[in-house]
Each structure stands twice: as structure tokens, then as C-alpha cells.
User: Fold this.
Amino acid sequence: RRSAGVGERLMREAEAWAASRKLGSTALYTRIDRDGARRFYERLGYGLKSTSHMMGRSGLPAGLSPRRSAD
Assistant:
């Protein structure tokens, strides 16, 4: 259930674990279209560090064909 504080408690535990190991920072990934998750992490003090893009292509370039297994 959202807004019950479970996510925040889990994040605080993860941060405490990292601090106990003297790690200098914490980082996480979330999809760019997850605005609610972004707001949640910002509320906890996290800020946008960078963005990344997953690239894809349908089909193969002209002249290439899938490999066939030698049966």
C-alpha cells in the first residue's frame, strides 16, 4: 500500500547500511517516466544526477540477415 511509510523506512535502512560501511554516497535508478518515484526520492533528499537512454532498432540494417544454425 502506498503512503504507508514502508518505502521511506526501507530507504532509510539502506542508507544506514551504507553509512555503517563508510560508503561516501548512495545512488539509485528509476525510469524517466516514473514521476511519482522521482518525487518520492526527491522528498528523501535525492537529486537528478544524470539521465540515460535505452536505444533500440526494429529489424536489421540492409544487407544483414539473421545467422542460421548449421544443422
The chain has a mean pLDDT of 88. Helices lie at 6-20, 35-43. Residues 6-20 form the longest helix (15 residues).
